[in-house]
Amino acid sequence: MGQVPDTREQITAAGYACIARFGPTRTSVEDVAQAAGVSRATMYRYFPGGRAELIDAVVTWEYRRFFLALYEALRGAETLEEVMERGLMVAHQAIEEHEVLQMILRTEPEILEPALSAEGQPTRELVAEFLTPYLERHELRPGIEVDAAADFLARMVLSYMGSPGQWNLDDPIQVAELIEVELLSGIVPISS
Amino acid sequence: MRSLTPRQFSSYCLGVDSAARSNAVVVPLRPVSTPEVTKRVAIVDGALACIAAKGLRLTTVDDVARASGMSRATLYRTIPGGREAIIQATVETEVARFFSALAVAMGAANTLEAALVDGITTSARWLSNSPALTTLLEVEPWVIMQHISFGQMDRALALAVDFTGPFFGRWLEPAQAARAADWAVRIVTSYLSNPSDTIDLTDQIQVRDLLRQFVLPGVHALEERNRS
Predict the structure, then answer these.
(1) Dihedrals φ, ψ of B37, to 5°?
(2) Contact: A181, B221; criterion CB under 8 Å
(3) Could you give the CA distance from residue B140 to residue B99 in angstroms, rounded to a whole number?
(4) Residue A99's Cα: distance from chain center in Å?
(5) Which residues contact A10 (CB under 8 A, 6 or more apart)?
(6) Which residues touch B192 (CB under 8 Å, ≥6 apart)?
(7) CB-nearest partner of B154 from A116, A143, A163
(8) Which of A109, A148, A185 sits opposite B218 (nearest CB)?
């Protein structure tokens, strides 16, 4: 907002636009330099590793943006149950409808590796941190520690939202059932 | 079941016809040990040694021939189809070995809690003790990650649920057993791809405590539904 994006950010955003338009395989360093309005020399100053480094940066950038948008969408949620329910549905839908992600999964999924492995740890911590205040406000079963519960929930949420398996996460009834049993039964007291 | 080592089990599996073999988890009626099976196992173990040493991408057919102590010609005769076929045979054999170890552990469990705890710890131990898998996760994680990410994980989940579901079926209705199995698979893949500082999934006590806190209350809720 009103901030001048730095050159690195500008190149990364242009990289994302190019991948969205041409696909990851057909995006070259030249395309991105042109789209960002910078010279090849500038490009290599910011991304000395060339195309591979640029693509890693784009993936990580979009990954972060995805989660920021998700947090934004969940801002109004009040209870733990509500944030889990909306979070799972919104995240799953966002993954399904993320055209660029789906195209990458079809064509060159290996470029997602940095986001899924090296970034895996921070993502889990980010989700756990996000859930912590909801856990702190909620009545918990005896002996349940907030940190451990947040870590477990983050692991499960990330697993189900990316790969629902036998669950239909577009169905609110199934989502509520999943949350009640698989996600929260050990954490919150049985509701009367 | 308990007297069967994973290696014996995989030899059994490899002795059955190729259609059944691609199904990986097959319990044959009688043991089969022919020179062809022995050679096949030697090739697979050679390939595993190569992958453990330098990863998948750099492993060539020549490397595998050298590591398994046979000529290229014998190797091609035993597993026709070149590098691709060798890799496939290696994956299938390892999957069969993994599931046989899991079957031994889960089959011996006397309670639902033990089936979950022993199933998870056995999986974690087997996976973390595999030198080939350890190298892959270090140098070419994508080879593994792609099978447990996004829609691709559905296949791994379905395979694991088909295999472990019946073990849970001793205590749960089939639909609930599949749910419990799906849940357990997610725990294993999460801690495998994203290790925890506080929980070691190969430690039986730690896993038992983790499950008693976060999983067993839900599993018992599923059990209750069976009764009602």
Answers:
(1) -65, -45
(2) yes
(3) 23
(4) 14
(5) A36, A37, A38
(6) B124, B127, B128, B148, B201
(7) A163
(8) A185
Residue A84 contacts residue A184 (beta carbons within 8 Å): yes
Extract the tokens encoding A179: 């949350």
Q: Where are the beta strands (DSSP E) in chain B?
A: none
Q: How sure is the predictor about B139, in pLDDT bands with cuts at 50, 70 and 90?
A: confident
Write the burial class of residue A108 (CB in 10 Å: 0-12 exposed, 13-18 middle, 19+ buried).
Answer: middle
Could you tell me the domains of chain A? 7-183 (1.10.357.10)
Q: CB under 8 Å, gap of 24 or more: what pairs does B3-12 form?
A: B4/B100, B4/B104, B6/B97, B6/B98, B6/B100, B6/B101, B6/B104, B7/B41, B7/B97, B9/B96, B9/B97, B9/B100, B9/B103, B10/B41, B10/B93, B10/B96, B10/B97, B10/B100, B11/B37, B11/B41
Q: Does A116 touch chain B (CB under 8 A)?
A: yes
Nearest chain A residue (CA) to B191: A155
What pLDDT is attached to residue B15?
Answer: 39
Measured CA to CA, the distance from residue A86 to residue B213 in angstroms comes to 24
All structural domains of chain B: 1-107 (1.10.10.60), 109-228 (no CATH)
Taking the C-alpha atoms of residue B18 and residue B87, their distance in angstroms, rounded to an integer, is 15
Q: State both tokens at B33.
A: 């040990």
- Tell me the Cα Rg of chain B: 19
Angstroms from B190 CA to nearest CA on chain A: 6
Question: Letter for the amino acid at A114?
Answer: P
Distance of alpha carbon A168 from the chain centroid: 19
Tens digit of each residue's pLDDT (9 = 90 or more) over A68-91? 888 888 988 999 999 999 999 999
The reply to whether the predicted model has a pTM over 0.95 is: no
Nearest to A183 by CA among A134, A150, A138: A150
Q: Does the CB of A112 have a partner CB in chain B at under 8 Å?
A: yes
ipTM of this complex: 0.81
CA A104 to chain centre: 15
pLDDT (tens digit, 9 = 90+) per residue, A120-179?
567 888 889 999 999 999 999 999 999 999 999 999 999 998 889 889 999 999 999 999
Residue B172 backbone phi and psi in degrees, to 5:
-125, 155
